Amino acid sequence: MFHKNTTLGEFIIENQSSFPYSSGELSKLINAIRLAAKVVNHEVNKAGLVDIIGNAGDINIQGEDQQKLDVLANEKFIQTLKNREIVCGIASEEEDHFISVNSSDNKHQNKYIVLIDPLDGSSNIDVNVSVGTIFSIYRRVTPLGTPVTMEDFLQPGRDQIAAGYIVYGTSTMLVYTTGDGVNGFTLNPALGTFYLSHPNMEFPETGKIYSVNEGNYVHFPQGVKDYIKYCQKEEGDRPYTSRYIGSLVSDFHRNMIKGGIYIYPKSSVATEGKLRLLYECNPMAFIAEQAKGKASNGFKAIMDIVPTELHQRVPFFCGSRRMVEKAEEFMKVK
Ligand code: AHG
Ligand code: MN
Ligand code: MN
């Protein structure tokens, strides 16, 4: 339906009428994220120059403080979202509390809540390995005209209106869903324009890649240990290939294209796992399900979990549908 040189801007406009509550505001919101993504992309691309232009905490040549990229990405996304009269609340992995946005002439009339992991995989920045941004969008549940409350942020993933990620990789891509499939856009850095490069992205039903930090093996639940042994067994299309970047966004992106499973289980040292339900797992789960994949905590769908805290962690099993189902079988036994 779309030709290959459709830009993200065109795509957003053309799809506006298919949004469930179409008023143009969600389009504006995605446009704001598109803009912030370009700004952060520019900063990420310069990361290797920190030794030349200064480290975090230093004063740069313009007399400005150098900031850590995760702090900077956080500020850029929050600023860009606040500057538009669309968002009533923002929660970020980098902030202890949620932010209530109250634009001056429009007292608490905005509808949308945004949750973000501004820089995912940030430890990879220093070694020139791909990082990302993850975002999740909901409609507020408290009445318009009142300040947002925790209730607006603690909605189950099923209630997401849109979710997406940006991967700052060998090329920069923005991948998102508004509940009508998943589309991927690649940035042409010379023009600063995202083009539709990956229409209707789907996880292969099964795959041959498993992605897990096996260094933590001894601490994993027995079901995960057994599933890993299953992946490594010589039988049928196994052993599978192990690939783990340590940036959820990049590991997920590769597995969606090639077929695979990503696992961050709970362990005896991280009793709830590591990944955050609201900023990481729910948005990735929405994208996964929209791309015919699956996301689970080992026992039930991630998006059915009712959150209790802003920074809640959950075990995460996500990827090709049949692989996640197989991992769940192993979890059930032990
Ligand atoms: P963040 O940089 O936002 O804190 O997220 C890092 C996450 C995720 O991206 C990655 O898959 C995982 O942490 C890696 O954790 P381990 O180093 O424990 O494997
Ligand atoms: Mn993260
Ligand atoms: Mn982060």
From TrEMBL:
KW NAD (keyword) present: no
Cofactor binding, note field: Binds 2 magnesium ions per subunit.
Signal sequence region: none
Keywords recorded for this protein, A-Z: Carbohydrate metabolism, Cytoplasm, Hydrolase, Magnesium, Metal-binding
Binding-site residues for Mg(2+) 1, renumbered to this chain: 93, 117, 119
Binding annotation for substrate: 120-123, 213, 244, 274
GO biological process, one term: sucrose biosynthetic process
A Pfam family assignment: FBPase
Start and end residues of each Fructose-1-6-bisphosphatase class 1 C-terminal domain: 204-332
Domain Fructose-1-6-bisphosphatase class I N-terminal: 7-199
Catalytic activity line of the entry: beta-D-fructose 1,6-bisphosphate + H2O = beta-D-fructose 6-phosphate + phosphate
Molecular function via GO: fructose 1,6-bisphosphate 1-phosphatase activity; magnesium ion binding
Enzyme class: hydrolase
Main location per the UniProt record: cytoplasm
Cofactor needs: Mg(2+)
Listed GO CC annotations: cytosol
EC number: 3.1.3.11
Annotated localization: Cytoplasm
Pathway assigned to this chain's UniProt record: Carbohydrate biosynthesis; Calvin cycle
Family to which this protein belongs: Belongs to the FBPase class 1 family.
Protein known as: Fructose-1,6-bisphosphatase class 1
Provenance organism: Arenibacter certesii
